Amino acid sequence: MLEDLTPYIQKSSYNTGDYWPALLESSSYQNKIYGFPRDIGVEALYYNKDLLDKAGVAYPTDKWTWDDLKAALQKLSVVEANGRVKQYGLAMEGGKWSLWLNQNKASMLDDMRNPSKCTLTEPAALDAIKFFAGLMNDKLAMRDADLSQAGGDAAVFQSGQAAMIIQNSSRVSAFNTAGLKYDVAPVPIPANGQRAASAGGAAWVMSAKSDNKDAAWTFLSWLQSADGGEKLYTLSGEIFPALKTVAQSDAFLKSGSPPANRQAFLTEAENAKVGRFGYFPDWDEMGGSIIDSGLQKVWAGEQTADEAVPAICTQVDAFLKDKGYPKQ
Fold first, then answer.
1. Which runs of consecutive H residues, i.e. helices, occur in 178-292?
2. CA–CA separation, 34 vs 43, rounded Å?
3. Where are the transmembrane segments (predicted)?
4. Is the pTM of this model over 0.90?
5. Cα angle, residue 49 at apex, residues 43 and 52 outer, rounded to 5°
6. Fold assignment, 6-40+199-273
7. Tens digit of pLDDT for each residue in 134-180?
8. 249: which residues sit within 8 A by CB, 6+ positions away?
């Protein structure tokens, strides 16, 4: 069991306002905070400068839309006469699909905290799913299964098999070690859409059975302080920090290492929102076994969104009803 940190926060006046928007909600339950996220998993668009230069594609900016992204991918993807793809424009893990959904102002459920029904059949949601699936069907982006077999997005980006990837800051250290010529930009959004970064990260917690809770709190609050653990982890290049003051400091922005446009991560973090995953106990089971499992058929090109999504929603609605949602 986890210890409720709320009393310690109140007693010590710990500054929870320094966390990115909605981030603490990922480690909270029923208005009680049970953990402090060490980082925030916001994604950026990584791009290989050499491959973009070769294809005559301008480097992406924070003004790019989905249309701009697709136009760039059409120039970057190299398909041989036999249909084999020599180089993909984009590689993105299928599990990140909800980024497109939330950017298009859509949602999986009518309430991500206490849902009553699936909303993936709504037009904005279907359009987002079709956009991602269309990139794969048109051979502009790698299929999720192919990406996994190729060793993941870091492997295909480093080998030049993909000119762009969408990923969080966890790839920075590896790409710098490999000496890649790359940079990052905010993820393109649809016209009239919104930025919708993931408000989640790995969290430090305290056991409810700890023998010395006061000492545990002292260490935990140091780990999550701007001059303590957060700064050390940031200087090591391991994380994009959960604390805004650390991300806005020279420790992150002027590290002296690529990417040059580190501001892209801040742009995304400033727009972190609830919606990329559920905030209720049965989310992992429902999200994994029904939603993600059903959408794999779309990412694989075995079904269209119009074929797969209504069946997914039927299963989700039955699951929610069986589990007694919405909770009173």
1. 213-223, 229-235, 244-247, 250-253, 263-269, 283-286
2. 25
3. none
4. yes
5. 100
6. D-Maltodextrin-Binding Protein; domain 2 (3.40.190)
7. 999 999 999 999 999 999 999 999 999 999 999 999 999 999 999 99
8. 226, 231
